[in-house]
Amino acid sequence: MDVDPIRQYLDAKAKFDHADSALTNLISFIGHVARTMDEDHLHFTVGNVKTKFPREAREGYKLDANEWPTAEKIAETFAEFHNARIEARNAWRRLSDDDRRNIAPPPETE
Predict the structure, then answer these.
(1) For 48, phi and psi rounded to 5 degrees?
(2) Is the pTM of this model over 0.85?
(3) How far apart are CA 37 and CA 78, in angstroms?
(4) Among residues 98, 105, 106, which one has the least CA distance to residue 19?
(5) In the chain, how many domains are there?
(6) Angle formed at CA 8 by CA 15 and CA 2, multiple of 5 degrees
(7) Which domain holds residue 88?
(8) Domain-embedded: residue 75
(9) φ, ψ dihedrals at 102, nearest 5°
């Protein structure tokens, strides 16, 4: 039994939307931490590490080291985004012209 190209596209688009959301959240989190470090570096500390901070520094933002993404997690999130984008784009291209007129394309298909 052949797989319906519309179903393939919708599944690929859902996977892309999920990957795009995960990447957006990752970028937002890293950006928030970077802005906080820049704006209040005198009171920026990191928790759940062996390094001890002076008391006066502990009055501001405390990054939980367990929440900071590893390089592997960053790479994985970007790779999932790129792969899902390509998969959605390819599934879109397999749709008939009639189907493409009635279904929204994935971002960056052109």
Answers:
(1) 60, 40
(2) yes
(3) 24
(4) 106
(5) 1
(6) 150
(7) 5-97
(8) yes
(9) -110, -5
